[in-house]
Automatic annotation (TrEMBL):
The keyword DNA damage does not apply. The active site is at D150, D327. This is Acid protease. Residues 68-87 have a biased composition (Low complexity). Residues 132-455 form the Peptidase A1 domain. SUPFAM superfamilies: Acid proteases. Transmembrane segments: none annotated. InterPro entries: Aspartic_peptidase_A1 (IPR001461), Aspartic_peptidase_AS (IPR001969), Pepsin-like_dom (IPR034164), PEPTIDASE_A1 (IPR033121), Peptidase_aspartic_dom_sf (IPR021109). It comes from the Eukaryota.
Length: 461
């Protein structure tokens, strides 16, 4: 393990990736308030037009079902228990073989027309799943580079002719289809920043490709980004918030009718380098259990849905009227400071790390984010057995216990850092950022018809 020391079953907290992410969140969502109000956004192109309504396969067999979850259904969100919807699934279609009346296909057939699977690697630092990245092809002939999969932003960038960049980069002179513009581009991630010029080229994945895909050809990259294994980033939020003002790679695939469905689905592993994936135009039923529970998108900017609050042990809860951005490019969960305070008050023995005085090591971490006026971290007893869940659309969705526990504050401490952090002044007080800490427990479906769905992940089977 990197940067941690094991103490029983709980490692010592590794502050480096969290400190960097805390700083980055403020920059990444600097215009969130305006975007969510429809201010300074680009016109919506609706690339999903003409696609049929997506119906996910039933993971209990080969029957395709579409169950609209409702608050009256019993809670099936516990990652450690099977789901038990109260209503009988409606049979919409059965996948059968020629001359066979019995369904014989479970889930999505491999490489079905209009579907592409992008395998992802999990970048693990200590005991933390920091980010997930996969291969994307650029240019003619194609050059393969790795990109962080980020549903919290909408721009694509890779290094090109970049001095000082430590990871693989795109060699534009080797591509016959590369075109550079004179338009500058710059993206800031807290202490990290990339800058360059907008360019176009063929960008592809599997058998699909987009001609003239716009991306930022990065010429300068801050040194701290060299610590990450991926070369660039693939933004998969709505193109309405793209700094480039251009359609995303996924939107172009839709507009060119290269996909079977106007959805992409995400499976994230837990402390396992391989096995994660993005399914473009498809849903991989081998990665999920139980029905998909849908949440309407509030704004076609971020993948934003209504969050009603949080619960502890299914009996205690804190109410909140929040907009939650579902963000695969963020590791943890971030809440307004008032909501975070109320949530941790439900956990016996918890405390704000700033008030708790958890030692010099954690104090240094907090000092590093003090310029953002954030209360930051909280501690909980390492032996706590509480079940933490988010309340979305009136239903509870549990977080796997080990994902909520970030590790001990110090080698000899009995206090651990909680995986839900607070964002204070300078951050919208009605916005929550829901990252991989939650998504590892829930197979996620991002549907361009305007909804996000969650089915219980096989990680928790």
């Amino acid at each position: 393990m990197t940067g941690t020391q094991a103490i029983g079953n709980v490692t010592v907290f590794n502050p480096a990736p969290v400190t960097r992410e805390l700083n980055a969140i403020f920059y990444k969502y600097a215009k969130a308030q305006q975007f969510l109000q429809g201010i300074d956004v680009h016109p919506e192109t609706h690339p999903e037009a003409g696609y049929p309504q997506f119906v996910p396969p039933d993971t209990s067999g080969a029957l395709l079902t579409n169950i609209q979850a409702s608050p009256s259904q019993p809670d099936s969100s516990d990652p450690d228990s099977p789901s038990a919807p109260s209503s009988t699934p409606k049979l919409l279609h059965a996948l059968t073989g020629p001359g066979d009346d019995t369904p014989n296909i479970i889930g999505m057939p491999p490489m079905a027309p209009g579907t592409i699977q992008m395998p992802l690697k999990d970048y693990i630092s200590g005991a933390m799943d920091v980010l997930y990245y996969g291969p994307l092809n650029f240019g003619s002939p194609p050059q393969s580079l790795t990109v962080d999969i980020d549903t919290g932003s909408a721009d694509l960038w890779v290094p090109e002719g970049c001095q000082g960049c430590g990871n693989d980069q795109f060699f534009s002179k080797q591509s016959s289809t590369f075109r550079r513009s004179t338009t500058r581009c710059a993206i800031t991630y807290g202490s990290g920043k990339v800058s360059g010029t907008l360019a176009t080229d063929i960008v592809g994945l599997g058998t699909a490709s987009v001609s003239g895909q716009t991306f930022c050809a990065v010429r300068k990259e801050s040194s701290d980004l060299n610590d990450e294994p991926n070369s660039g980033l693939l933004g998969m939020a709505f193109g309405s918030i793209a700094q480039s003002g251009k359609a995303t790679f996924f939107e172009n695939l839709l507009a060119q009718k290269q996909l079977a469905q106007s959805v992409f689905s995400v499976h994230l592993t837990r402390t396992r380098e391989t096995g994660s994936q993005v399914c473009f135009g498809c849903y991989d039923a081998t990665k999920a259990m139980g029905p998909v529970r849908w949440n309407s998108v509030i704004s076609r900017t971020y993948w934003s849905i209504a969050m009603d609050g949080l619960s502890v042990n299914k009996t205690l809860s804190v109410s909140a009227n929040l907009t939650a951005a579902i963000d695969t490019g963020t590791t943890l969960i971030y809440l307004p400071s008032g909501v975070a305070d109320d949530f941790y008050a439900l956990i016996p023995g918890s405390a704000s790390a700033m008030q708790y005085g958890a030692g010099k090591r954690l104090t240094r971490i907090l000092d590093s984010v003090a310029n953002n006026n954030t209360t930051g971290f909280y501690t909980v007893p390492c032996d706590t057995t509480v079940t933490v869940a988010l309340i979305l659309n009136g239903e509870t969705f549990s977080i796997y216990p080990s994902d909520f526990n970030l590790g001990r504050t110090d080698v000899d401490s009995n206090d651990c850092v909680g995986g839900i952090l607070a964002l204070g002044n300078g951050f919208p007080q009605n916005l929550a950022i829901i990252g991989d800490e939650f998504l590892k427990s829930w197979y996620s479906v991002f549907d361009y018809s305007g909804r996000v769905g969650f089915a219980r992940s096989i990680n928790n089977g």
